[in-house]
Write a structure and sequence with these properties.
2% strand; 2 strands; mainly alpha
Length: 193
């Protein structure tokens, strides 16, 4: 709303930190001010509800060893680490990194018989929640890791942003496989060379 009516971009973090008086002073029009106040109040209420849900989840979930190691990856916070840990289950069930990457929907599904392409079926195999978690992690990883940002920009220049994000999510899935399997912290040199 601020961007649309005032022509200036503003981050959601800045809006969350604003007081009611600051929100009132943003617009000269009474109706815009009232709308901004309502939006600000909704943001506050939803943030309280999100905090309440997260606390309840943390009370119920038994955190395993991989959880702490996943937190070392830039862009993977408590909720994404917990989602990855719970949806992956026992990492030992995946003998190879490629099997895990495929389970996370990080690779394209192809049907090939005798060297001939027989279609693109099987797209829905794997875990959609892990696929979502790694795409979210890729978005955050680009924000918090300079090497990831450069890699993503190079990939975007060759194809497009969506494919670059999906490729980065696959790299993250592969990195997290080794993090969980070997119980080692994140190493950006190992990921980006």
């Amino acid at each position: 709303m601020v961007n649309r009516n005032k022509g200036m971009p503003i981050s959601s973090d800045t809006i969350k930190k604003m007081s009611n008086e600051e929100v009132e002073g943003m617009f000269s029009d009474v109706h815009l001010t009232m709308s901004a106040q309502c939006d600000h109040e909704v943001i506050e209420v939803l943030n309280k509800q999100i905090d309440k849900i997260e606390k309840a989840v943390f009370k119920e979930v038994k955190l395993k060893k991989p959880y702490k190691k996943l937190l070392t990856v830039p862009g993977i916070g408590e909720i994404l680490a917990m989602t990855i840990m719970l949806e992956t289950g026992d990492i030992e069930r995946f003998r190879e990194v490629g099997k895990y990457s495929s389970y996370c929907r990080g690779v394209s599904a192809k049907k090939v018989s005798n060297g001939k392409n027989k279609g693109k079926g099987n797209r829905k195999n794997g875990n959609k929640y892990l696929a979502w978690a790694y795409v979210e992690a890729a978005h955050f990883h680009v924000r918090y890791c300079e090497e990831a940002r450069k890699w993503h920009q190079r990939k975007t220049s060759k194809s497009n942003a969506i494919l670059a994000t999906k490729a980065l999510s696959n790299k993250l899935a592969r990195a997290c496989y080794y993090i969980m399997k070997e119980q080692t912290p994140y190493d950006k040199k190992r990921m980006f060379g």
